[in-house]
């Protein structure tokens, strides 16, 4: 592999240092916890004979022999496999590939546990979406249960999509005394071009095509095994795992079922087998990930115009390692990080085109050379300075070569010297209504500033009904409130994109302000999302009234209201009244999640291990 070190951007150094200083106490407490758990021998040697018998009873003879007596490290597999969802279906065969690869290097691998993997694409606009965000913390807890048997010297995490990877990362960091590696499945091959899919969705929203045409377009887009090919949360996850060092270099976007994908899985197995505490290359996950890793993740997110969902997930992931990340950090990193990629919804290309243009190797190489990414941070394959490479098969043997020096398509991927934009894809939005984020990388400059009267909605269904009734043919800013984690679990509101996009295309000035989420694939229409504090907890978004003039300025990060400040402060917040009882489809089982969820600005997590006391 190649390496690259350069002088760091002074602003990135400054931001990293302030995160380190802010996190000093909580990070120290975290490190003391994981260092106190470091085993003096293979983990299973602490167990009783009865415990070992239970842990090995279902194994093949070779694994049973090694668990009971010999000196091979034991790797625990946490898998999000299911055969309903395209992104996770490829994992069906991974345990056998991993077991065989482990045996070749004198290691054992066992499936330690499975975690749920729900698809926002299935539940989008339906009641099940109210469980989506909280599934992240369920996944973290399910992973912890699998690893709690405490017989593992390393862990392999098999997961791809929206909440799955953040949940797995949280668990990997809470078991931070053991090494962890993430093994992706890869994106499906390209199908119907994303702009055509978007066009059909808008036609359906206008009633100009029927459901048959819409289903045909959707099926041609999502057509086989693998991750969806747009650059939403799932593929942003894979980018993050690479720049944070949880992947082997170049693992993110190789397609499922290809020889290089299987070779990467085998190589990941054999690499994690080298990192255990009894070897010479011990690399516990909680020591590998530090403040530099977290800043590298935000830099990668900004440079690629990644998913807004990571304004929730990255703070929650960082907190699991005792690191306190704020929206101000996102905004300040965005201000100095150029936008280097245009992948749908930020442009017509998909992640396969991005990969072919130079992909992660080119991106990392550019960011390292510009001093925006800290190459001294560690990854499972070595320092991040060595991640500006791409994998290939050389006579069937997995090898790495330096990433290309030039992009194969500058409409998709550009160097730092010629970016799409001088700054990144996200803005922090702040003002009397609350604190939120806006994804501007997919929004044309002429749509980023809107000043218009508010129309207040208490649900996405109410907005869509008003659109269908022809009541929204005007300039307005939609205030969709009572959509935060404490209200209904903070479902994505992606189904609002087609009607609002139709109105924007008709020449109206429109924007969305909400305490809910939008899809990682949402774009085109300006939006301020994750507005905190949320309306159901008395946040000022619940004080906005129909007709109030809202100033939405994503260029300056301003979310203002033209109401006398004294009058606005004196208003009482409207009370949250759920549309139903919150019962059914398992929602009643998540009552305590809603009650205990933290604010969106801190990741909307109910875990309390960050040291912030929130």
Give a verbal description of the structure.
The chain is an alpha/beta fold and 614 residues long. The protein folds into two domains: 13-38 and 73-189 and 224-402, no CATH class; 426-602, IlvD/EDD C-terminal domain-like (Glucose Oxidase, domain 1, 3-Layer(bba) Sandwich), CATH 3.50.30.80. Helix content is 36%, strand content 14%. It contains 23 helices and 16 strands. It has helices at 10-22, 24-36, 49-56, 61-68, 94-104, 120-123, 132-147, 164-174, 194-205, 211-221, 233-243, 259-272, 285-288, 291-304, 310-320, 327-336, 351-357, 359-369, 460-468, 485-488, 497-505, 565-570, 591-596, and strands at residues 74-79, 108-114, 154-158, 180-182, 378-379, 382-383, 389-394, 397-402, 426-431, 434-439, 449-457, 476-480, 510-514, 527-532, 549-553, 558-561. The strands form four sheets. It has an eight-stranded mixed beta sheet. It has a four-stranded parallel beta sheet with strand order 2-1-3-4, with helices on both faces. A two-stranded antiparallel ribbon has the order 5-6. A hairpin with a 2-residue loop joins strand 9 and strand 10. Helix 5 crosses helix 12, helix 8 runs parallel beside helix 15 and helix 11 crosses helix 14. It is globular, with a radius of gyration of 24 Å. The model is unreliable at 610-614 (pLDDT under 50).
